[in-house]
Amino acid sequence: MTDPLDRRYQVELQVSAERVPQLRRIVAAHLRHWSLEPHVRPVCRAAEELLTNVRRHVGETSRCVVELRWTGRHLTVSVADDDARMPRLLDGGGGGLSRVMALSDSWGTCRTPDGKVVWFTRYAEAPRTTGLLPRTPLPGGLAARSRPLAELV
């Protein structure tokens, strides 16, 4: 069964030091709007790692496209840039792609005609909400309330 929910956000930006925290706040706001509060912290950390990698390895003057996509079951965050050099997972590293790998369910890279895309996914099922349900009154509830407290003791 497929879930008809398909939410998407995309932004193109220059990856300066000021833009990375700003985009982190934008990602957090979208996740909260989509009722994905438990995913805000790990997704923002992983997205920040991808953007920091673009800034560090491609350059602050380069432009990239960040896309969030939530299908109701999976959240995918991708960062596309115009540098053809593919990223590598370094042994013993505590940041970069090692951190993205630790914060996500899957991740990967893909060459494009203009450069590359680095992405990660997290399982993020739509929260189940229950409507307001009528409460069943307790037996003798109204009768007990109408008597004075001294009679109940």
Quickly list its features:
elongated; 33% helix; 5-stranded antiparallel β-sheet; 26% strand
Can you characterise this structure?
Helix content is 33%, strand content 26%. The protein is of the alpha+beta class and 153 residues long.
Total helices: the number is 5
Largest sheet: 5 strands, antiparallel
Q: Nearest-angstrom radius of gyration?
A: 24 Å
Structural class by SSE content: alpha+beta
Order of helices and strands: EHHEEHEEHH
Oligomer category: single chain
Strand content: 25-35%
Average pLDDT for all residues: 85
State the strand order across the main sheet. 1-2-3-5-4
- Give the total of beta strands: 5
- Pick out the low-confidence regions: none
User: What percentage of residues falls in helices of 4 or more residues?
Assistant: 25-40%
Q: Kindly, what is the distance between the CA atoms of the first and last residues, rounded to a whole number of angstroms? A: 57 Å
Gross morphology: elongated
